[in-house]
Write a structure and sequence with these properties.
5 helices, single chain, about 30% helix, globular
Length: about 200
């Protein structure tokens, strides 16, 4: 089986004058789509932080660059998921919850807690949630919620997560390996490539 993994696209925009300037890398997304199309994977796994949600972060804004950028950010993220669906016909697709994705739920809880978890009749996901706003189920994606514990378990010894650990000096994988002696874990979050090997009896 072929499993294609992507992570941390962090799609978003700054509005500079009348121009929307991406804070994500469109060239990387295009390259990943071409590779996925060539590989024809059996599974596609998105390890999270697909949309940045800078507009909903906990930090006070230092400028007005994120005014009116949330809608185009969500639209582009939906389009990216749909593009991967089109590029990988027949694949099973999964996306896991992440710290940037969690920003939306945290924002709703802080500012309109009565609306948290509200789901339209017949819908699978709450309206004010990432899978709900992006219509992930309608474009062929499964969402695994609950950041911190969210994972897609492909097999008992192989799971995909976004991750909560990001340790300096290249030791994130070593820390993760110590927590998972009996499983192989693939995570995003740390924004760098690391590998840790462990062999036991």
């Amino acid at each position: 089986k072929v499993i294609f993994v992507l992570s941390d696209a962090q799609i978003g925009y700054r509005r500079i004058g009348e121009e929307l300037v991406p804070i994500h890398d469109e060239n990387s997304i295009a390259a990943a789509l071409k590779l996925a199309n060539d590989l024809r994977p059996d599974f596609v796994v998105d390890c999270g932080d697909t949309v940045d949600f800078a507009e909903l972060g906990k930090y006070s804004p230092k400028d007005n660059h994120f005014i009116g950028t949330l809608q185009p950010s969500l639209q582009r993220t939906h389009e990216m998921f749909a593009e991967f669906t089109a590029a990988t016909p027949g694949a099973e697709r999964h996306s896991v919850d992440s710290n940037h994705t969690k920003r939306l739920g945290d924002y709703v809880l802080r500012n309109a807690f009565e609306l948290y978890g509200i789901t339209a009749p017949g819908d699978k996901y709450p309206a004010l949630s990432v899978p709900g706003l992006l219509k992930l189920d309608e474009i062929g994606w499964n969402f695994h919620g609950g950041y911190g514990l969210a994972e897609y378990e492909y097999a008992p010894d192989l799971a995909f997560i976004h991750g909560t650990d990001s340790v300096s000096q290249g030791s994130t994988a070593a820390k993760l390996g110590k927590k998972n002696h009996d499983r192989n874990i693939i995570q995003g979050h740390a924004h760098r490539m690391e590998t840790q090997y462990h062999t036991d009896r």
